[in-house]
Fold these 3 entries.
Entry 1:
Amino acid sequence: MADGTSAAARKFDADRAGEYAQQSRIALAGYEACHELAACMLAAVLGSGTPARLLIVGAGGGGPEIVTAAALEPGWRFTAVDPSSAMMDLTIARLEQDGLHDRTEIVLGTVDALPQDAVYDAATLIGVLHHLPGDAEKRAILQAIAGRLKPGAPLVLAGNHYAYASQPLLLAAWGERWRQHGASADAIEARRGKILQGADPPHSEAAVAALLDAAGFEPPTRFFSSLFWGAWLALRRAGSADGA
């Protein structure tokens, strides 16, 4: 997992981190709704008002998973993991602004940097999987998460799926979304070229389910969709102590 994760972290340098908050909300129509529903799905499984420890993987960029979930459930505490220092700086600043720093452990690195005996009640992996090259890297991060979850614990997985070029209508609509927010034709074409070359999403919803199954999770339930983006909740399968 280290090589693919390091390459993904290098993509999110200081320049990209600085524009992330605005651009992610354009690229993903329904950005806030996805995070709000993710928190609701986790609360539906864990129970309203129940104390819990949540592992937030890929928490850089302002930590919207933490901010949204913390507002819904005051008894939840978080471990925020991200290998990009520029992205994590944004999250630390937001957590301090919202008074959430005391509820959050910051880990600059990967899931593998966590103690082997660390156990969590739930986890999120939002906007990460499609940045990791190849199925082996994707399975590795999911297995690392599964290995640190209690049996039956929920994982919220969200990110792009489909091979972008295989969905020309969705790709065209994605470009129109940028035009809707003032992007020029040249800027849209540049962004289209970047997305076609710079990410490797699972190629279908079935591929997402297969990755989760191989990592030790039950079949997922999709609760959000927006063009290429999907969000699912899957429970860690009981009896697979190593996450596989």
Entry 2:
Amino acid sequence: MNTTEEKKIPKATAKRFPLYLRYLKMLQSEGIERIQSHTFSEVTQVPSATIRRDFSYIGELGRSGFGYEVNKLIEVFGSFLNIETEEKIALVGCGNLGRALLNNNFRRNDNLQIICAFDSNPEVIGQKISGVEVFDIADFPEIVKEQNIMLAISTVPSQFAQDAVEKIVEGNVKAILSFAPDRVKVPADVTVQYIDLTNEVQTLLFYEQIQRK
């Protein structure tokens, strides 16, 4: 039975899978071979009931009273997240945030790599930032098609986000991570994930205030 085909995995659950894998690898490095959901909850700060529900979307990964085998979970989540396949990423927008992403460039994930960057500023085009060349955004469709890139990160401000995304879509990119909180219009076969830093900070402050009461 292919559980993942029969159950549609919620987006919130899918977002936790890389978190689980990261902590599982940490546990593996510490020589831990087996773990209970309540213990894993303490490590990940995710409720144990949520962990068990998330795991159930993939299949029967553990046994009652026995827990979960760390190595098996790493194998299952690694296969599910396809971590052995190198994913080439294009970055659009080389301002402060874009440069920070290029300087970091997924150092903890060998299978994720920003290989090219794009901007509309003539003073930036042609530069190399942390070894990644910056191209004219007008050349985006041609370059990403040549490189077979299917994922793009946009750090373009909200007022320019729609234009940037339309250029990304021209390149047949189907997955976009946008740091502009305003929603953009894309074709039905394109997925956009939004990161709203202001919202994240406000949420963090909200919980911090609760802890102080």
Entry 3:
Amino acid sequence: MSLWLADSLQRPAAPRDWRTRLRDWAEDVNLVPDLGQNVGSLTWFRGLATCFGLCATALYLSPGFQPVPGAPEPLLTPAQYDEVRSQMITPLALGADSGRRMGATDAVQPLKETPERPQIELNAQIGSSDTLARALSRAGVSSGDVATVTSMVGGDIGAGVKPGTRLDIILGRRASRTSPRPLDKLNFRARLDLAVELNRVGGVLQVTRVPIRVDNTPLRIQGVVGDSIYRSARAAGAPPKAVQAFLRVIAKQVDLGSIGAGDRYDIITEYHRAETGDVEVGELLYAGFRRARGKAVDMLKWTSEGRTEWFEASGVGEKRGVLGAPVDGARMTSGFGMRRHPILGYTRMHAGIDFGARYGSPIYAVTDGVVAFAGRHGGHGNYVRISHGVGLATGYAHMSRIAAVPGQRVRRGQVIGYVGSSGLSTGPHLHYELYRGGQVVNPLSVKFTTTAQLTGSNLAAFRARLAQLKGLKVGTHEVAAAAPTAGAQAAAGK
């Protein structure tokens, strides 16, 4: 046994083939090591070379991105296409909007003339900033019938038909295919109290007016403020338009932020209800407010001397102050005081302030008054002077054109002329002066307001109207005072 072992150790090993040697080498050498370990070592570089080699081989063997050519299908002959079209259901699948038609067979015969519908019934609606004529034209009514309709009902619609009004239209049979369809019937609501119906009788349009009874009793809503006066009033049934107008009026008398739970509101607004159930909310007539502890506010809209404004129960109107500037967007180019005159060349008193503005810009009266002078006035050029009472007056000079006449009563913000450069002037601007007791004063040093005061028969009529409105019965529910939010309970009595 020992001799055999010694002999086997002394004999050389049998030669191996190349496959065995390659397998043994691959086991000893790792060609795909982890490139995240031993970075920079010989093994790592060997793995990197393997990665690049595999990528290069993949790119070399890639098929590319060129399209694969294919033979197109042969085109159908007209006979084949007509046969296929007569059997397909494409028009039905696409909702008959493909533009194709079914292929005709022997059972189909063309019509010599397509019959028309005897009449077309349609509905249209008056849009915002729309007119009756435009709405009818869009609906397909001929221009001749539109002109006839507007001439027949022009006096009924006044300033125009209310947006959203529905038009029921029937168009009749036309005489030929080249002529428009005639208007056979038209129904619409011209006003809340009037419905209009037009019918074609004997080839001529005739109008029938149907009066509608309307109840014009004002709507009164009273309630107690919960967490919000707006939400409380809306929950009590007050229209949004009336609530918004009410808040604008009382905001001039009380601080809206100080209104709290327990305060009471009283709203009276114009309210028009037709027998058909349609309703129109008009202007706010009365605004009342009572604090749980504090003063009460009673405001009534009243027209005095051609001006409509809000008056307190005592007959005192709104306070109106002067405008900041008699020209919109103007800049002050020269102040009040001594200065060197740009034309005369010496220093003298500048008895007003100048506003630079474009030629032709409108000039406004700064407050109510009566035109005392309007015309040419020396170096002032075209000049207007307005008397405001209590010794106050204002002057407007260098106008290009005067838009007021002596003796005319003007309101605050009314146009009395236009900016120019008449008289001693170097360019278009407005020279504005203020007089107190006949003497010029600095316009920037005087701040005054005007307040209307009712007296005599006007005051008596005002108080009678106020008593009449306050005697109206409450028309909706009244907000419960105990609820923290706007709850409602039925209100009765006056």
